Amino acid sequence: MSFIEKHLSTTQIIILSFLFANLVGAVMLSLPISAADGHATPFIDALFTSTTSICVTGLVTVTTASHWSLFGHIVILVLIQTGGLGVVTMTMTVMLALGKRISMRNRMLLGDSFNMDTLKGLVSFLKRVFRGTFIVEGIGAVCYLPVFVPEYGFTRGVWYSVFHAVSAFCNAGIDVLGDSSFMPYVHNVWVNIVTMCLIVLGGIGFIVWWDIISFIRLKLSGDTRKSAGFHNISLHSKVVLSMTFFLIVSGSILYLVFEYHNPGTIGNYTLGGKLLAAVFQSVTTRTAGFATISQAGLSAPSVILSVILMFIGGSSAGTAGGVKTGTIAVILITVMATVRGQTDITCFHRRISAKTVRKAVAIVLISFMASILALMGMFLLEQGNPADIIFEVYSALGTAGLTRDYTPLMALPGKVIIIICMFLGRIGPISMVLAFTMRDKQSAVRLPEESITVG
Question: Which of 153, 158, 395, 438 is the most buried (most CB within 10 A)?
């Protein structure tokens, strides 16, 4: 342990921890006991399934419901829960496991990764994350019971309720219902609402949870002080809530417009059915992975919209993937400030630091470059419709898990590329944030400033 702590950075520990868990999961899934037919699963498919589970993506090369045994489903569920919690808690957990004392540098890295203003209370924060996760997942499972128990019987209904509550909250999108995801429940309002609530709660991030809970507690206590007002919620939470609301609403409207007359998706539904399907599509595209309508049937504008939403993803310190809503918000705010000729980058009467802007630009640019490299590799080594391949790559990098029925058609090279994309999509943005918050020694000498012509 002392060797690891001395020679490996926090970022390296996170990556190696995920790699180790991924490989263990792949080995377990490749065993005959994990398959429904009792035969060993090819290692590439076992590795693909383990990666999509630990990275809470949802893309699968074999049908989860029919290919895997109960043991295999349990392994997948454990991987999903580990991946969902691990992204925001694994660093702290590993650091605590390495010894009794956490160095100041690592506390600073952890505080920055959680967007916390203080280095105190990290252990209690971790405990609250675990407690809050299991409470929400438990409530979600109970909410699924009235639907799944009557349909599948008590034992299987309870199991399906637990599995899908965890999968939805962790934004994994892996189901054990069959080969058509949640399409049989496209008109079931209750299943749609429960699933969307779990997806959003997992995706907005735990920091937003605590801000909202603190605000509600103050209001319920009758506190009328100015400090108890909504405007005193952290800037991070305001941005996340605003962006989440904007993306869900705007995405729903656009999907409704683009698909309104499309018989391949929602064209034959009633107005209420169309609206419900459009809202669910807008929510699930941002890294959740469940589908109530055919992704292969989407019109070209909807495919473009889906790629954009999958690239953005959810929010920091949550279970979702993508470059994160806060990152995109900072980019947009910076662009608007530049167009207006403003010197400071401001939002909700607060100034955003230049360091945050640089991180946001770097995260988006590096993620986009990774997607371009993956696309070139896929076009070179795989056959298929370009739209399907582009959709698949951004779904993997954004850990969205949606597919235009392309995943099972991939050969070995394509599977390897998508595995790498899923891993980078789950680890990359967080690793970049941690890397960019390393405290380099600043030079005492400032070089002369000179302009570069742009635009």
Answer: 395
